[in-house]
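Q: I'm writing up a methods section and want to include an example of the input and output format. Could you take the sequence below and give the corresponding predicted structure tokens, formatted cleanly so I can copy it straight into the document?
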Amino acid sequence: MMYKVMAWLFLAQLLIQILRIHAKVPAIIVFGDSSVDSGNNNQVQTILKSNFEPYGRDFNGGQPTGRFSNGRVPPDFISEAFGVKPVVPAYLDPTYRITDFATGVCFASAGTGYDNATSNVLSVIPFWKELEYYKEYQKQLRDYLGHQKANEVLSESLYLISLGTNDFLENYYLLPGRRLKFSVEEYQSFLVGIAGNFITELFQLGARKISLSGLPPMGCLPLERTTNILSGRDCVEKYNIVAWDFNGKLQELVVKLKNELSGIRLVLTNPFDILLEIIQSPHSFGFEEAAVACCATGLVEMGYMCNKFNPLTCADADKYVFWDAFHPTEKTNRIVADHVVKHSLAEFL
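A: Here is the clean output for your methods example:
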């Protein structure tokens, strides 16, 4: 009897897998930084980690996974919206296998950026290495599904790319190296060039449906507001302008690549406006606090400074736009993900 039950469960799981693989978007494949990392940094020798409490306290009943939030991050909600699965697993997580990755995988690394110099700051996975991991994944997928089916999955999957904030806040404006070499406009163009090369190589490897995310209003992150204490902790307008201008350059890149790469379906998903609206009118979205974060004092803490021993962490993260001083709460992630699905990714549904 037990063998029959096990056989039935195996066949049911196989059927679900086949149905997902034949879906319009069979998998969600993710590149980027902490805005989308689902736990790869757990396996990296870096101080930038979040696989401990209170991170993840609202994830499946309280499970710190390495996501920089109290719960899920945007790719999880996007995957769910596309009917794939409720969470996108981290590629380096040893508890997952190719059977899990066949319907979605995350290569992102918290703290990374387009610029290799950015990933060096906190010794995280550089952006180019994420693409090397993707090439490994392609081979594994072909071994698992066969070349024809794997190639179909790879071409029909939705690729999410989200990074860039660290290039400015953890590199350009924090360390002198890049500022001595580039004006901010030149640095923006330098990063856009890297983004263009990455997307072109991804296209050459078989990707067709690609979402490139713009920057948030990074001057309104609680950590940046804290550094602006002489102005009453207002948003740092200079950083918001840089983000806005950079997003404009990314939009120009999208137009350029769509003209150059026949068959690519490339969109810019821009979180800037919806996040700024939430920050400026938090009560309209059911929040009570947008200037400070939930964890610890909410002014400067993230990573190891945001830990379970701090008695100041809020009781209800849903009242806060930000979880730590750099990252949104699960509730904010859900709102932003719903927004980009409806306004940018709808063509892929």
